[in-house]
Amino acid sequence: MAALLRSARLLKISPCALLQVKGTHKHVATISGHCSRAVCRRAAGLRGGVSSPFSYSSAWPCSALRYYGTAPEQKGVVKDEPSLGVRTKQAQQFDWALAKLDSSVRRTGRVTKTLLQRIFHDICRTGYPSGNQALLLLRSCGSLLPELPFAERTELAHRVWEKLQELGATYDVSHYNALLKVYLQNEFRFSPTDFLAKMEAASVQPNRVTYQRLIAAYCQDGDIEGASKILAFMKSKDLPITEAVFNSLVTGHSRAGDLESAANILSVMSGAGIEPGPDTYLALLCAYAEKGDLAKIKETLDTVENKDISLMDRDLMQIMFSLTKAGHQQHAQNCYFSALLIWFLSVCVCFLCIDAMNLCLSLITQGFEDTAFAVLKTFPNLQAESQNGDNPDLGNFFLRHCVNMDKLVHFCKDLKDSNLHSAPLQFTLYCALDSKKTAMAVGLMKTMKEEGLPIRPHYFWPLLTQHQKDRNAPGTLEVLKAMQELDALPDVDTYSNYVLPTFPSVDTARTVLKDAGCAVDTAGFVSAEVRNEAARGNLSGLLSLSEYWRLRLSASLIVGFKGHCSSFLLNPDNVAYFLYNLFDGMTETEVQAKEEKLRQYLNQLEQKVCTHTRAGFEGRVLSLEKKLEELKSLGKPTGAIFKQLISALCAEENLSRALEMKAQYEEEMTPSCYALLINLCCRHDNAEEALNLKREFKPLSFIKILSLGSLSRSEAVDILKEMKEKDVAVKDTTVTLLFHTLNSAALKGDSTTIRRLQDTIFTLGLVSPSSNLCSPLVTVYLESGDLNGALEATMECHKLYNQLPRIHDIISGLVEKGDTELLQKAMDFVSQERGEMTMLYDLFFAFMQTGRYREARKIIETPGLRARPGRLQWFAEKCITGQQALENMVDMTAKLFECDRDEMYHYLLRLCKDTNDWHKAEAVWTKMQEENVIPRERTLRLLAGILKSNNQEVPFEVPEVNYAYVALFFPYLLPTEAFNILKETSRKGMALGPASYDALIKSLLASGNLDDAMAVKHIASKHISGFQLSDLASNLQIITQVKHGNIKDALVNLKGMLQADQVPSQLAITRLVQGLSSHGDVQGIHEVENLVKTLGPSINLSSMLFVNNTALAHIKNGDIQSAVEGLESVYTQGSDSPQKNISFVFRKVLEANNEGALDKLSAMAEQLCNHFASYRAATDLFLQYLDTGRTEEAKFLLQVVAKIKTLVELIPDFTEKETVCAYLMKCYALDKDLSSAKALYEQVQAEGLQLDELSLKRLASLYRDAGETVPFEEPPVNAAHCPHTHNRVVSPY
Fold first, then answer.
1. CA 791 to CA 822: how far, in whole Å?
2. Among candidates 414, 411, 388, 390, which has minimal Cα distance to 399?
3. Which domain of life does the protein's organism represent (predicted)?
């Protein structure tokens, strides 16, 4: 071909111009190189009226000895638009099929025929296959099916093509390219001329990938002349000549018998600006392998090694396959290749040898079992499929696929003798039974019998199953005879489940089996007869059989039934079920007649169940107490067991014991324990103990946590300890704040503070160690450029917390700095702690980050390396702004095992969208076809969007967004996005389910978008007759309408809910009543009150809701006197209670600065105190004064109210206790009550409060008046410490 390419006479064009490719010397032309030519001007197809020279078959001289085949042309079948349900199912089905096939390919490098046919049939059943589904199926009909012969693969591909086309699938150039790839992988001989004619008839324009694969097809047959014509045409259309074309030419020359020209292609490539890469050398090595030239293979491998080019394990296996297929098995099993293969597999010892397994399968399929077995024996013993240690099962896949009976037995014996498989014959038998191969299974069982292995009756069950389903008596008899020959007599299960059901009756079975020479007087057959008669309920037949065979029916069945009933009745749920069915099956007359017996029976059951339940509770409590004591004696943590014990005691309603345990383990009390005990006290009406528990439990305020950033080191540590003591729940926001606190210290270079804080946080167990929280320590050193210190800090974090913070930044810095010694130290550490694969990925990303792409390629091509999707996606996101790094990573990972290629190209297309580079996007699409990648719908839509935004033609069918499918995710979308999707579905006449509409309405209402929510409701009502909002949506509607001021509409909706038997929520009613009060609608409030009375106490409304809001409505209307009278009546007609709270009224009046209403309400409160001894209203007013910052008014109120002590008792959690104590001391001084004053002073000291100097002076005066010594230093009088008094005149009302 080298001479041919240099010949101007043949090509009519300069060879330099023909093969000139711009760009740098690379192994593979990058996407940038692809789109630098006219292909970016959409010359990938024949357009603009330029006709192809391949339009007529006469232009293609073809040998009459060849058999040519091609896919049938498109028939242009037009089908109706699929329904919404079908399209939804189709979208879900494709996702499932793609996931299944991708998972299979990534795990095993192949797909099974069974899986592929199942997906194919499922797709066909919908009747509307998409283009992407067709592409998925076509791609899977090639080398991904190593277990099928080439011809069968191609036949399956044609069947898929024809069937999907018949069902209306639309094919574009990507489908034809995929079919070409399948033809090449299956070595199918076809006419490129006819293939192009079919494409032209279907109005599908070929692109660069099409021409490359047509060249490969000609070269596969050694037709250099045909390949040269396509090559010349590509050059005339300014299509780039890539490495793939040269690789095909190497194969073409070798198949034509010109190995010298094949080798010279490499120098032509170098002259054209393309450096030969691994694929080129692989093509040359396979060419030598087909000729059996072992010396040239060794020489070329040495050249590859000297050029520092990496060949992967699958490349070596391809050479072995070519040697074997060409009839040079002796070279394939050569010691040189065996040594190389063993080395490759030993490198991959940590991973499954997937490529080697697929090589074995391909060799078996082609009939080279011996070579496949030789490859199998090179597998390291550590790659045993079962990984059971003492029972290795190497080669299960081999035995499952091998079908040559004579060799199969030999292989089994060899595996057994070599201790590579624990039970090869048994496993092979299992495979034969699973595939319904009766003859093979029986033959294997005979071999097993000869080997002295036992033959069990159940081995034959898989063979009998199908005969039993088909009622195939002859087949059943054949299997029974085989069982007799092998001395495996059928047992009772074999007869009962597989033999007797095959015949019309037991008598017929007995007769036929007896005539066939099968024993029917065995215990197994007779027992099966008994089972059959018992199952049919034929007691007479059962009795006759027992009499004939003198069988004795055991009474153990009855005993077993009684025992079962005993255990059954111990479960309360079972008892309830039993009683329900018992009474349900009795008539009213029967119940009345046996009423007394039933009562006795119920009492006995109750005693038995309660005794059992109580015993269970007591046993659990005792067990937990014992465990708690053991842990305490050993000095181990007891918190978890203590919580379980408190929970168990509360469930048992054992309050006294629970309080005892609380007293013993005070330090283990947590918020959850306090909550359980308080609830238990409330259930036992023990208010005093409940209040004591409430006072004890004072959780730490989050304000202290939020102030961590401004604290000193010791203060921060103290607060962290306090958080642990109070068992404060640490939320995500707190973790973020902790990180910022640590990071701020890192920016200051304070590593000591960081270490202490980290040690406190993690040691106390406030949060689990994470890489994020550990990173500030490493940041200290990275910011100062100390890479050695950063590495030591990372190693320290791993030792203490098992985290490797910022390891990527450290390794990248070492690579950029060129510190090989420290880099080796880092790599050794990562490899030892996290494994070799993690180390390789860290090094790969560091090389990529620093632009060392040659070194990165060597790393990623390490034999046995698997894709790690999470890490690849992380780096792709990281370098999405760096075009070159992302392009190179996508190119380097092309052969990475398990790599999701669609995901990689999707990142590249995202970059194209960000830069609005449609030329690059189109080159990416071509590259995906070259690589035979099946794009997901999101990738196609992304690419189509880029092309459409630049007014370019989209060369494929764009999958529509399935709005009904997207509607399933309404709860996860922004309300506006979901609303836009809904409008689109409504415009197209599509209807969604009620749940989708309701979910969107709730989402819109929750965001306050009332108009859009009502629009959705209107759309739903048009599509669904009688559409009704759910309870939650209706409540949200009322709340949102109140917020928007639509009070009347909200009231109408409340009435509608009640008429529809829906239950309004407490919040909805509260918001509506408050809205009515803000509008002064007293009548509306009374109407709502009357409406909700029918609901009873179920919605738990406050008794003061309507009273308070009625008062506010009167105030709104200016009728303050009516408001005062209504509120006053609440307290004068009954005793004070916590429920009679009018704080809401006071707060609203204070917020409105309504001084007139406030004067009258405060006078009402004072009058209630002085004349009715009712302090609730005054307490509420006092608290509102404090909340609103009116401290002077609060002090004045305390002075006016005589019963200050009673007021304080009503509000034990009052925060201004020092002020209250000052006024109490004043009262005691006026009353000359020294004993009360002493008690108050002691209380103040116990609670750590500080009395003002005037109060101390008053107390000292009381001591002196009583003739006692003052026990403290008496302060001088200072007017500044005296409480202020007001000269305000109080109204008598």
1. 9
2. 411
3. Eukaryota
